[in-house]
Write a structure and sequence with these properties.
There is one protein chain. The chain is of the alpha+beta class. It has three helices and five strands; from the N terminus they run ααβββββα. The radius of gyration is 19 Å and the shape is extended. Strands 1-2-5 form a three-stranded antiparallel beta sheet. It has a two-stranded antiparallel ribbon with strand order 3-4.
Length: about 100
């Protein structure tokens, strides 16, 4: 599902104009970016948690040559599924 499909599905389910849903999703995106920049953790109970984490510097290997390379420390984003998402995934039969 891409953004346009998501906007359409939410608009239909919530019975609101797609332009409103699109504006809300844009606002959510902006606020998530701002929160991660500030170092805040964003939790939507039952759905997901988004937070900035740090990866330490480490030594890696070039897969083609096997040569050791230094990988710099970096900030990254961690997204954790909430209980409702985990229950939904568990309810789907494994194929």
């Amino acid at each position: 599902m891409n953004k346009a499909e998501l906007v359409s599905a939410i608009a239909k389910r919530a019975d609101v104009p797609a332009s409103t849903v699109d504006a809300v999703i844009a606002g959510l995106q902006d606020e998530l970016v701002d929160a991660i920049t500030r170092g805040d953790k964003v939790a939507v109970s039952g759905l997901l948690t988004v937070e900035r984490t740090q990866r330490s510097a480490r030594t890696g290997r070039n897969p083609q040559t096997g040569e050791a390379i230094e990988i710099a420390a970096a900030n990254t984003v961690k997204v954790t599924a909430g209980s409702n998402l985990k229950k939904a995934a568990a309810a789907v039969p494994v194929s």
